[in-house]
Design brief:
Helix content: 10-25%
Order of helices and strands: HHEEEHEEEEEHEEEEEEEEEEHHEEEEH
Number of helices: 7
Mean pLDDT: 77
Strand content: 35-45%
Low-confidence stretches: 1-32, 74-86, 148-153, 264-281
Radius of gyration: 21 Å
Shape: globular
Length: 358
């Protein structure tokens, strides 16, 4: 078989979603006596995570963020296309939330986000994927075209781990420690940027030594004592979830949209009600400026007002005026909205974005 080719410039883009989406924490209430696991290299810990993709478990996840964003006024209630509040999307990304998570191997998962007055679900059962929003009374039914995923892969998970470590290490220091701090034998994989030209201090993933399931994950920002982003299990059960958890029937009165997700000729396109749209038909193609953790993404085109549903009040609350546009500064990510609609973003100081925009 072929091999995966990792681009060093995409290392932050690869690591951040892994940290945000895969991380979980077990609270001290679950603690029991556990032995310190045997020593492993970083590549061996990644191999352990890959082997854990077939694990089954369920639990309650808590997500929190501390990005230093301003408190939004109640008046920022505009709606982005599709009927979702722009301020609500921001609150979802930056506030504290809980969800129920069910995993039965690599092809059956359910995430149930529980808000005070509503519920949102993402359910995958083999090639069938449902998303459901109880408040909006909408659902999307998608079918995955698994035959289209003809991608070159390493021969073994260990090979993939070795190659990923080889791609990361030119820009990142990788270390592994082991402990029983969470009541289980765990490995802590720490990724630290070698450059000081990034807002990221480090990314940390804690992995269960027995199952390979990530048990903790966070991204730390430079100069900030609390994690910028972290996701945590407040409880976890490694028993196999019941099969009916992954079945879903839309409640009466739900508006359902059907889609088929395919990847013909190595690209991604979406078939919607029998009509295929070409890849990237509506989204501008981003450009990467620089490399590694200090890289900047440039997206030309539609601008920030479109993304925020035309809400000028929300845009003004989140950004400050700078030369040639407006700047959104968080502890972890900076976004520059140039006057011509071009967007520059990266885990870098604002000066780096202004330099990239020249």
């Amino acid at each position: 078989m072929g091999t995966v080719r990792f681009s060093r410039r995409w290392v932050p883009a690869i690591v951040a979603p892994i940290v945000v989406a895969a991380g979980v924490v077990i609270t001290p209430a679950l603690a029991n006596a556990a032995a310190v696991p045997p020593q492993k290299t970083a590549a061996q810990v990644l191999d352990l995570i890959a082997a854990g993709q077939d694990a089954h478990y369920s639990g309650t996840v808590r997500q929190s963020s501390d990005l230093g964003l301003p408190q939004l006024p109640d008046s920022t209630t505009s709606t982005v296309p599709g009927g979702t509040s722009a301020a609500g999307l921001l609150e979802l990304a930056t506030g504290s939330h809980s969800a129920r998570v069910y995993v039965d191997g690599a092809t059956r998962q359910r995430v149930q986000v529980l808000d005070t007055l509503s519920e949102r679900d993402v359910i995958r059962n083999g090639t069938t994927v449902w998303t459901y929003d109880a408040q909006q009374r909408t659902a999307t039914h998608a079918t995955l075209d698994v035959g289209a995923h003809d991608l070159p892969l390493p021969t073994t998970p260990a090979d993939a781990a070795d190659r990923l470590i080889a791609a990361i290490t030119p820009t990142t220091s990788v270390s592994v420690t082991r402990s029983t701090d969470l009541g289980r034998g765990v490995y802590e994989l720490r990724l630290t940027p070698k450059t000081s030209a990034t807002l990221v201090a480090d990314a940390v993933i804690t992995v269960d030594a027995n199952t390979g399931v990530p048990l903790a994950a966070r991204i730390d920002a430079r100069g900030q004592s609390t994690p910028a982003v972290q996701v945590a299990f407040s409880s976890i059960d490694f028993a196999q979830p019941a099969a009916d958890i992954f079945s879903f029937t839309p409640p009466k009165g739900t508006t359902v949209t059907d889609r088929t997700l395919t990847r013909p000729t190595g690209h991604t396109s979406t078939e919607h009600k029998g009509v295929k749209s070409p890849p990237h038909a509506t989204m501008p193609k981003p450009t990467v400026i620089g490399t590694g953790w200090a890289s900047v993404i440039e997206v030309p085109g539609r601008g920030a007002m479109s993304a925020l549903g035309g809400d000028a009040a929300l845009l003004n609350e989140l950004t400050r005026p700078v030369a040639g546009g407006r700047m959104l500064q968080t502890s972890l990510i900076t976004v520059y909205l140039r006057g011509d609609g071009t967007v520059f973003a990266g885990a870098v100081p604002s000066s780096a974005l202004l330099s990239a925009a020249q």
